[in-house]
Specification:
The protein has 19 helices and eleven strands. By secondary structure, the protein is α+β, with helices and mostly antiparallel strands. It has three domains: 112 residues, no CATH class; 242 residues, no CATH class; 80 residues, no CATH class. This is Transposase.
Length: 491
């Protein structure tokens, strides 16, 4: 239950004067409290609370500010609450009395899981932009786009290892709760068994105990049974690389290095205020996120006339989107991207700008690229994929490359057409080169979010948790930027 304002009495603590003594005027939290209005939090979160029933909840604004401090100083829940108990700057920022007792850290977990939805994350980012516009800080009509990767909190494993761990977890749970069913377990495959054999074993295991488990009242056991059954039936098990973090995927940083986790796709104004966010698994192509970043920035109140990014964002679809919206796209095209943009790629194929190679729908990179001449005088790029990986790929039946009977699995792209040549001429202009010079600002922002605020590694597992982490980190850096610019340009 959310208390109304009449139930939240202002304290008359005799120790309030301590804040004037121990929290310096130049302290960042004092400046944030002075320049940023957090009163939007309670109305924004009111729909997440029961109006008339239940125990009185901790004030949403205080809980929200605790989440802010957590990302501001990159702290665990326990260290945050421990620090807030003794740090006067924290308590001043939280609007607490100096002698006030802090909450139990477990309440932060409940707040994250039950009060913060995707809509609320969008609303809180929009609020920083609104305050930035209101203060006259956001004036530009350009956004800079880029992505940054975050390593999963879980370690990646092979699909066979993941399935083996899930079946082991299932058997252990049966031993604890319905040990009599252990007599129905089929013989386990050897440690060297291939994926197909492990899948067959798991199907037999589930089938042997299905009737007894579904008729039991063991809710957690039923849920685990249904989870494993769904993974097998939908073939999702072939995509998962961790039983603890099913949403994380491998992505490519370069042609020879990968990461396991997620991508945060960001749009930022020239004033370094983040205006739009998309969070995906690590294997998602950057180019696909540009329309969403543009739309979110516009919905958040930013007028967009220019988009500045790297070569990943030049695609025929993105150029058409920008043209329809009257937006100029400042992103440099290399010959490979131009070639990809010149032809209609099969669904799921995309150009990976970090590796400089084509990426298939399963997320695998081409091993190499060959430039060849056709008999009609045209040139084309031939991307060669691993024949071994294609044979094992769960998507091979839908992929023309995988089903090929040729000695090598390859995908060929014709070199730029007239439309792309005009694009390259535009990129050779002086104004294009000048606008592209500010792209480094978003790379610096990515670095700030990862190094200073912990975005380099996921706090928890799952796409929802990663989305929450990214949005709160963006909220923190936006607030810091607004405070800095407000101090430089006082009204």
């Amino acid at each position: 239950m959310l208390r109304d304002n009449s139930q939240m009495q202002l304290s008359l603590s005799p120790y309030q004067g301590l804040y004037d003594i121990v929290v310096p005027q130049e302290h960042l939290l004092r400046k944030i409290k002075e320049h940023i209005d957090f009163s939007f939090v309670n109305p924004m979160l009111r729909k997440q609370y029961c109006e008339n029933f239940g125990r009185p909840a901790k004030e949403p604004e205080m809980m929200f500010k605790l989440m802010f401090l957590k990302k501001m100083y990159d702290l665990s829940d326990e260290k945050l609450i421990s620090g807030a108990q003794t740090d006067m700057a924290y308590k001043y920022f939280l609007d607490l009395d100096p002698e006030a007792e802090m909450i139990d850290p477990s309440l932060l977990t409940k707040f994250r899981k039950t009060r913060i939805t995707e809509d609320i994350l969008e609303d809180m980012l929009r609020e920083t932009i609104r305050q930035g516009i209101e203060k006259g800080i956001i004036k530009s009509t350009a956004i800079i786009v880029d992505s940054t990767h975050t390593n999963s909190a879980a370690r990646p494993k092979t699909v066979t290892q993941v399935l083996r761990e899930l079946s082991k977890q299932f058997r252990r749970k049966i031993y604890r709760e319905m040990i009599e069913l252990s007599e129905k377990f089929p013989e386990k495959p050897s440690e060297t068994a291939e994926l197909a054999e492990e899948i067959e074993y798991t199907y037999h295991l589930l089938e042997n105990v299905k009737e007894d488990i579904l008729q039991s009242e063991k809710i957690s056991l039923i849920e685990l049974y249904e989870r494993i059954k769904e993974l097998l039936d939908t073939q999702r098990i072939r995509e998962i690389r961790s039983k603890n973090d099913e949403d994380a995927r491998f992505g490519h940083k370069t042609a020879t290095s990968t990461f396991f986790g997620y991508k945060s796709h960001l749009a930022m104004s020239e004033e370094r205020i983040i205006t739009g966010i998309e969070v995906t698994h690590g294997g998602e192509a950057d180019c696909k996120q540009l329309p969403a970043l543009l739309e979110k920035s516009q919905n958040n109140g930013v007028e967009v006339k220019e988009i500045i990014g790297d070569m990943a964002y030049v695609s025929e679809d993105n150029l058409d989107t920008c043209e329809e919206d009257g937006v100029m796209l400042f992103a440099k095209t290399n010959s490979a991207v131009a070639a990809a943009a010149a032809s209609s790629l099969d669904e799921g194929f995309s150009f990976n700008k970090d590796a400089g190679l084509l990426q298939c729908p399963a997320g695998e990179l081409a091993m190499r690229v060959e430039k060849r001449a056709a008999e009609n005088g045209n040139t084309y790029l031939r991307y060669v994929f691993s024949k071994v990986k294609c044979r094992k790929c769960p998507l091979w039946e839908q992929c023309r490359v995988g089903k090929s009977k040729a000695k090598e699995r390859s995908y060929s792209i014709t070199q730029p057409n007239e439309k792309n040549r005009l694009r390259l001429e535009f990129e050779a202009g002086e104004y294009f080169r000048e606008r592209l010079k500010i792209r480094h600002r978003i790379e610096e922002k990515n670095g700030e979010m990862k190094v200073a605020h912990g975005l380099g590694k996921a706090d928890s597992v799952g796409l929802d948790a990663m989305r929450l982490q990214t949005y709160f980190t963006a909220f923190v850096v936006n607030v810091k930027r607004i405070v800095k610019l407000s101090a430089l340009n006082p009204a």
